[in-house]
Amino acid sequence: MSIYDFLDENGIVYHDKTLIYQAFTHSSYVNEHKKDNSHDNERLEFMGDAVLQIYSAKCLYNIEPPLKEGLMSTRRANLVCEKTLAEIAREFELNSFLKRGQGEERNGGRDKDSIIADMVEAFIGAIYLDTDIDNSFKLLDILYTDRFEMMDEKTFDYKTRLQEYVQADSRKSI
Fold it and tell me: Which of 49, 87, 105, 164 is catalytic?
């Protein structure tokens, strides 16, 4: 199965196979294959991160009953973090499409959270640049299936909880 099969099976529109290929190309591969004139996925990663932020913010905003702003921020951070993106890559076996250099392959690059999380963001960015925001959101609906429903009130980070606790304390310091 190829990434193009994945896109076709899920009804995701694409036109530029070169852009999709680039999304799965790590800089270590480009460094070892200079005469291929291929490009790494780093710029696409930047774009995908922005699309993912908008998507997650929109989904969280539309949850009923409405969530408070602080909870939306915390949940968004959990949804777009490296760990979650790496889980998505593994769940959909997207990391099997990653092109990386021999050194990175020997060091387990196909399964490093940081590398495959960046790859997922680049993939989202490539779909956005190749088509439009709606098609990108369709891809994200597939990748994030049930992730918004799985989040509950216990989803938080400790720094936010501490800040909320301190701000809620009405005692004044002397």
Answer: 49
pLDDT at 114 over 90: yes
H or E stretch covering 57: helix 42-61
- In sequence order, the 6+-apart residues with CB closer than 8 A to the CB of 10 are 139, 142
pLDDT value of position 50: 98
Query: Taking the CA of residue 158 as centre, how many other CA atoms within 13 Å lie in the half-sphere pointing to its CB?
Result: 0
Nearest to 144 by CA among 77, 70, 63, 59: 59
List % helix, strand, coil for the chain (3-state, nearest 5). Answer: 70, 0, 30
User: Is 49 assigned a catalytic role?
Assistant: yes
The answer to whether 121 is a known catalytic residue is yes
Does residue 156 carry a pLDDT above 80?
no
* 147, 48 Cβ separation under 8 angstroms: no
Per DSSP, what are the bridge partners of residue 25?
99
Residues comprising the chain, all counted:
174
Closest-CA residue to 79 (of 63, 65, 99, 93): 63
Residue located via tokens 């196909």? 110
Q: Pick the catalytic residue from 40, 104, 121, 130.
A: 121
